[in-house]
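Team,

Forwarding the record for the chain on the shared tracking sheet. I've put the sequence and predicted structure together so nobody has to dig through attachments.
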Amino acid sequence: MLVLVLAGLVVLLAAPASQAADPAGPSPTVVVQSGDTLWSIAARYVPSDDPFATIDEIRRL
């Protein structure tokens, strides 16, 4: 389940990058540390967005 959620997060984070000038660029990698939560990962990797909205988008995948 955690792998599926993290894969969703990677897809979500890669979406804005796909609109950049170089769509073949690398996708971000999320390394989960002990004690990490989906909330803390969302806040760390998409700081400009509300973590709740990011998690909600992942949940809808």
